[in-house]
Amino acid sequence: MDDELESVGDLARNFFAKHVTPHQKRFADQGFPDKSAYRELGTLGLAGMSIPTEYGGGGGTFAHDAVLFHEQVMAGDHSLQLGVHSGIVPHYLNAYADHEHKLRWLPKLVSGEWVGAIAMTEPGTGSDLQNITTRAVRDGDDYLISGAKTFISNGRNCDLVIIAAKTDPSLGARGVSLIVAEVDDNTPGFERGRILEKVGQKGQDTTELFFDGLRVPVTNLLGSGSRPCRARTTRPPRPA
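User: That's the sequence. What structure does it adopt?
Assistant: Structure tokens below.
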């Protein structure tokens, strides 16, 4: 810890005390947190602290994010899925998206305007990515994505979701890719399913997602330039 990280801790502590803790029962009753909490997090500069300033982030290191996560635990918050929104999704984008897409996606996540999710787990396969059944079929300049995902953190609130799908089933594990979709409740071919009831963390948004010919530009394939990103694990690239 240093003075800067101590200041981050103070800011995060006040955020949870004011914008999250008083609403925990309501979040648990509805099964998800209010999206306004993510926007407030972004307004305070607490989302995307380890993302480069070029893309709206704080230009810091994982230490900044670790302080945020620590204060979340100390506040007893079980609703905001910041590990996914701030710790995983933006770092996949920062590591594998091209510059144009980074400029489009990262500032919206960092500001809290958008909530991020990553959809890997499927009914019947869990996180065994080699055996997922979700498919992304090339159709001109687009992929058509079809399949189902479950236990997706931030699935109900997400505006951007990274989808693990098979782009070439003949390649086995190497034929699984990560494709980014911008979604809302009116997106054709995209449907949010049940908010899943859990033993604990009842305020955390954990949802089913369904894709039925969801059309996504081929350019949204992560790593479509020099090094395609093959989905191997839920662990994100390590922040600088």
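The chain has a mean pLDDT of 92.
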